[in-house]
Fold:
Amino acid sequence: MKNIVVLDGFTANPGDLSWQPLESLGRLTVHDRTPPELVAGRAADADIVLTNKAVLDEKTLARLPRLRCISVMATGYNVVDTAAAQRQGITVCNVRGYASESVAQHVFALILELTNHVSRHTAHTAAGGWQTSDDWSYTLQPMQELAGKTMGIYGFGQIGQRVAAIALAFGMRVVAHHKHPERDRQAGVTFVSFEKMLAESDVLSLHTPLSPDNQEVINWGTLAQMKRTALLINTGRGGLVSEPDLKKALETGIIAGAGLDVLTEEPPRSGNMLIGARNCIVTPHHAWATREARARLIEESAENVRVFLAGKSRNLVGSSTVGS
Structure:
């Protein structure tokens, strides 16, 4: 029976789900969190390791000669040195598409908060504002309809496609910028240049993986190309946005608002200039974390392990090899 070790399972399962899908496949050990200095020790006897954010770099992998498979409990797999894993004959796989519905839903939670200001009006009512109002109806700041507005989507994978479908249901016009427009065409979606997307979007939502090519793609120069009434939504990666430039753009009215679920440092131990910034909403990287999505994550991770144990391959990333 194989030893299976989960290095950081708490975010996926804080206690409301079952690890049974993995327990049925071997001797399972689950750690809520594993600090860097304990990774090699906790994984020393593992045949299979599951990780979300715990790093498995070349130095750590060299101390794990028994390890044969790493299943990343996420879509992004930059926490694993895949080249080093290949040299050691370690299969590396990930989980894809498990949170598309949840992230798309959160995108619109952020948008609707920025357009309808629900939390501000709720707090004002709780503090007695409605009770003492001269009028039966009032707004603390203007609200907006989404119908007729233009939704811009940067990156059009599974999440971007779900965001587009919801935007269309709201009566929005949808434009997108994507590497593979022919492959991923969708009724009602117009693929445009990056510059045209910036200029036309009333709401711009980021859904592309972070790479050296798009690091801080949203910066002072690109923000200046957007409408002054535009909203920026980022549930992708914090590094897509220059945080100083976004703060300046919000403070000076270059754009109207931002909703962020990701930052460049997570958690922001040293603080972050966008927390509390003007017309900026920040949530703690939990767009993916509905109960349903986390259950799918565990099931899909277990399926990766099950397929690996059968000597086959699934969801391989990097230059993985297959073994059992």
